[in-house]
Amino acid sequence: MSEVRLNFKEMCAKFDVTPRTLRYYEYIELLSPDREGRSRLYGPRELARMTLILRGRKFGFQLEELRQWLLIYDQEGTKAQMKVFLDMADRKLAELREQQVQLSQTIKELEQLRQTTDKFVSNQVDATFRLRQR
Questions:
Q1: Dihedral in degrees, nearest 10, Cα atoms 83, 84, 86, 88
Q2: By the 8 A CB rule, do 43 and 5 touch?
Q3: What total of structural domains would you count in the chain?
Q4: Which of 56, 17, 13 is nearest to 26 (CA)?
Q5: Domain with 10 in it: what CATH number?
């Protein structure tokens, strides 16, 4: 049975990325497709790496972090890569929790400002209406 291999266009479509993004991921050595002439062919390894890259981006990891993390698999294997991932995930979770606290505070402040402004506008409308009534 032959392994799945996608060409450049199919890879872009499968992962919903632009050609520029895919070329950039190759340029910074996140992906290294096989080449046949001028064609790029992406096998199971590159499909798995692309899945991990996009998942990592979704969670907010930097591309360089992901590149180094993927290198660990190539150099030291799965277990070492998983241990590093646990550290990365812990750091990212702490960062996201801090952002969540800050976001909650910002929402509260904005709600209070909106409420104050709403009262001010309502009072201005009432005052204008009363003046016109005279």
A1: 180
A2: yes
A3: 2
A4: 17
A5: 1.10.1660.10
**Spatial contact of 45 and 6, defined as CB atoms under 8 Å apart:** no
Sorting pLDDT into bands at 50, 70 and 90, what band is 1?
low
Q: How far apart are CA 72 and CA 3, in angstroms?
A: 24
The mean predicted confidence, pLDDT, of the chain is 91
- For the entire predicted model, the pTM comes to 0.77
Cα-Cα-Cα-Cα dihedral sign, residues 35, 40, 41, 47 = positive
Task: Provide the token pair at 77.
Answer: 């294997």
**The amino acid at 52:** L
pLDDT tens for 68-93 read 999 998 888 889 999 999 999 999 99
Identity of residue 39: S
Average pLDDT over every residue of 2-6: 86
Q: Which residue, 8, 16, 17, is CA-closest to 36?
A: 8
Task: Between 95 and 131, name the one with better pLDDT.
Answer: 95
Query: Are residues 65 and 7 located together in one domain of the fold?
Result: yes
Which residue, 44, 49, 50, is CA-closest to 4? 44
Instruction: Look at the block and give the residue holding tokens 């309502």.
Output: 122
